[in-house]
Specification:
0% strand; mainly alpha; 2 helices
Amino acid sequence: MKRYDLHERPPLPGTGRVEDYTTAFLWSFGALVFIALFTIWAAFGFPLALAAGYLADIGMRRFIGPDDTA
């Protein structure tokens, strides 16, 4: 089998493009956030999980900004 240098080899055979894993990442990240909030709820109670979710929402709104919302 021929060995390629990292910069010579195309990412996909015949296309020269890479696969889009955005949807898979977002689903995985959503599941991870759910598990994290459930763990906080189980360990410390619902008010702390609610506060963690609220603080994450505030942080995301500041990071995204008002112009980037759909």
